[in-house]
Amino acid sequence: MKLTHRNFVSNATICFIRFACALACLTSPNLEAAVVLQYHHVDDKSPPSTSISPELFEKHLEYIEENGFEVWSLPDVVEHLKASKPLPDKVVSITFDDAYRSIYQSAYPMLRDRGWPFTIFVATQPVEQKLSSFITWAELKEMSKNGATIANHTHSHAHLVRQLAEENTATWLQRVREEITRPERLIEKNLGKTEKLFAYPYGEYTAEVQALLKELGYTAFGQQSGAVGQDLDMTALPRFPMTNVFGAMSQFKTKVASLPMAAKKLAPDLKIVTGDALAEGLSIQFTKQYAGITCFFEGQPLKLKQTRESIVIEAFPVLPVGRSRINCTAPSEELGRFYWFSHAWIKPKPDGS
């Protein structure tokens, strides 16, 4: 065939389009992802470890509003992830734990005025006891009519990972089951509907508790950092805890734009740690290859070796008693946005508490 100018232009255009599409695939962020933010108190006078000031909370909302983010309800985000439906870029979902009164007094008016959805994970015992520092059922019902999803955070806000001295595995799991199913019944009774969404108290869980939640049909969220995506375990989805310290605007801008970074395998794969379980190091195999991974523990950088999809940390610090976590990030192809992975451990006291 004789190559005319028209043929040449047409072929060149097709080549350019193919190249541009390929480039877009390499540089565009994962559109099956969202960031879930976790708040507790929205108050100046509550415990600093779980509090954000109303002023800083409003700055978060203003930044979301002014920088191209879409605020989605948590049920919609979960439905899209489960169905492998694409999400728009920069989707964020706002959640609160424990149903503190400041959520109703300070956060709710700001969200209602914007018409934004949000989720409150409710520990139902203090609501049933009508404690003055918690939201009432009537107020929860009001909010549920104005964008709020009311979800499950156990009945008594128990440490689900703790097996009591008089319990065996079966009786422990039966108690945990009741901690989960009782709030479901109470929410249904008082509000007329319930969602199969759960947040672990203190972000603590074990494989047995995860299996129970899966059996009961729940999607569950922890308190380890990172964005949610389809490669992640739907019974251990991450959220970014937001306080005056960890929600400072310099950090918030990075966290709210983050992308999911899923691990395929951890060795050793532990959630409850005793003794020096990580003395021989830690290896993490991710689901894809990331360039330039950096990891931090207790705010300090870790020395690591990277080979394709995996990293090895040979000299891992001794874990302190209580909850601790590792955070790993890698730069994405989009300037200023990072893939983010986090894993949490619990090291009990010698008495098991």
Short description:
With 353 residues, the protein is an alpha/beta fold. The protein has 9 helices and 20 strands.
Topology of this structure?
Elements lengths: L4 H23 L5 E7 L1 E2 L8 E2 L1 H13 L3 E2 L2 H9 L8 E7 L3 H14 L3 E5 L1 H5 L8 H8 L3 E5 L16 H23 L5 E3 L7 H9 L3 E3 L6 E2 L10 E2 L7 H7 L3 E2 L2 E5 L14 E5 L7 E4 L2 E2 L3 E3 L2 E4 L8 E10 L6 E10 L6
Parallel strand pairs: 1-5, 1-11, 2-3, 4-5, 5-6, 6-7, 8-9, 12-20
Antiparallel strand pairs: 1-10, 13-14, 14-18, 15-16, 15-19, 17-18, 19-20
Structure description:
By secondary structure, this protein is α/β, with parallel strands linked by helices. The chain folds into two domains: 229 residues, Glycoside hydrolase/deacetylase (TIM Barrel); 83 residues, Immunoglobulin-like, CATH 2.60.40. 31% of the residues lie in helices and 24% in strands. The protein is built from nine helices and 20 strands. Strands 1, 4, 5, 6, 7, 10 and 11 form a seven-stranded mixed β-sheet that branches. Strands 12-20-19-15-16 form a five-stranded mixed β-sheet, with no helix packed on it. β19 and β20 form a beta hairpin. The longest helix is centred in the N-terminal third of the chain and has 23 residues. 36% of the residues are buried.
> What number of domains?
2
| Secondary-structure element string | HEEEHEHEHEHHEHEHEEEHEEEEEEEEE
CATH class of the largest domain: Alpha Beta
Task: Give the total of beta strands.
Answer: 20
What proportion strand?
A: 15-25%
Reported by name, the CATH topology of the largest domain is TIM Barrel
Largest sheet composition: 7 strands, mixed
- Which whole number gives the mean pLDDT? 91
How large, in whole angstroms, is the Cα Rg? 22 Å
Proportion of helical residues: 25-40%
Named at the architecture level, the CATH assignment of the largest domain is: Alpha-Beta Barrel
CATH superfamily of the largest domain: Glycoside hydrolase/deacetylase
Please identify the structural class as seen in this structure: alpha/beta
Note the overall shape. globular
Distance between the termini: 80 Å
| Spans of at least 5 consecutive residues with low confidence | 1-28
Total helical segments: 9
